[in-house]
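> forwarded from #structure-qc
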């Protein structure tokens, strides 16, 4: 399930809603909740717990070094607060610290471009699942950003790392994405490790380790096109739903065309190792085994699964993959 895009809140509205002091422009290393960062900044202390956004990036081409410190919010899902927010920013580096207990950890939005988030632990950032945030790291309507070498742990209920809206050419690389399995409600867990939502394109998802997701490890949603999912390790995802379907290691949904799924290891997931529902994709040299680890007779699952049957596999190319089980011969090439 996709989300409804949330209307952006102004800083003033946030302050009014929570009774916070209007944030001041911060150029020094000692900053507080809601500070607007406009120069290179190295934190000298933790920030929070915050009743507003944690830190707001207010200039281009700067570095925010968290310096192994923590930016924290309060466990109030639905307040809309974000740990570190970049809106319309360019050339910013955010690195080296922890962001926790917001509705979303780090958000790049509003045509932000050529920014990098690296060495950040985004943990326990939880929204309500009712159209607001619910992500560890999120990219909205922004392009050519890099999310690299982060630890993204127990966020949701949407995803660990999510790309959505009109976002193109973003790179998600070398991240450890684990235990993002927050329920939307007591019977419904749709929390993915990494998800590319409708409207996104040209994303590169590579060399990530994705484990313990509530639903799919890596999900490429309908109308998300021309993406590359390669060299990831995707293990033990999809076991957390009570009534909804079990999760796949890698799932390429209907109309998510021209996706390249190559060189991944997808093992021991609850349902399929790799499932493809769209056309004109390439599924090459992946390693799969031990999938369908939570069998459901009503929904047979396999290491390799292509739902296109007329014609078999349609225009998808399956080649050089290792597997034990499969749903039709055309995936065995």
């Amino acid at each position: 399930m996709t989300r409804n895009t949330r209307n952006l809140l102004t800083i003033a509205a946030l302050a009014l809603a929570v009774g916070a002091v209007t944030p001041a422009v911060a150029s020094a290393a000692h900053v507080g909740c809601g500070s607007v960062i406009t120069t290179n900044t190295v934190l000298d202390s933790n920030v929070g717990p915050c009743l507003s956004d944690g830190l707001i990036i207010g200039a281009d081409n700067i570095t925010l070094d968290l310096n192994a410190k923590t930016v924290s919010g309060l466990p109030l899902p639905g307040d809309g607060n974000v740990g570190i927010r970049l809106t319309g920013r360019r050339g910013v580096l955010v690195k080296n610290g922890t962001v926790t207990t917001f509705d979303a950890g780090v958000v790049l939005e509003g045509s932000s471009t050529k920014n990098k988030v690296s060495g950040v632990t985004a943990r326990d950032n939880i929204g309500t699942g009712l159209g607001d945030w619910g992500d560890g790291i999120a990219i909205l309507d922004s392009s050519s950003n890099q999310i690299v070498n982060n630890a993204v742990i127990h966020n949701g209920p949407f995803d660990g790392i999510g790309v959505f809206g009109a976002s193109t050419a973003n790179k998600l690389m070398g991240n450890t994405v684990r235990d993002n399995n927050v329920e939307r409600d007591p019977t419904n867990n749709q929390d993915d490790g990494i998800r590319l939502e409708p409207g996104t394109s040209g994303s590169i998802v590579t060399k990530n380790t994705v484990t313990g997701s509530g639903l799919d490890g890596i999900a490429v949603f309908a109308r998300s096109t021309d993406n590359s999912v390669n060299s990831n390790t995707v293990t033990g995802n999809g076991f957390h739903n009570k009534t909804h379907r079990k999760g796949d290691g890698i799932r390429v949904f209907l109309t998510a065309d021209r996706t390249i799924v190559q060189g991944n290891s997808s093992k021991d997931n609850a349902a399929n190792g790799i499932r493809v529902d769209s056309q004109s994709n390439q599924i090459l040299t992946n390693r799969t085994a031990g999938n369908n680890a939570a069998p459901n007779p009503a929904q047979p699952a396999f290491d390799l699964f292509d739902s296109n049957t007329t014609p078999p596999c349609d225009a998808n190319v399956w080649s050089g993959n290792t597997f034990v089980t499969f749903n039709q011969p055309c995936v065995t090439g």
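QC bot note: The longest strand covers residues 93-100. The longest helix spans residues 11-18.
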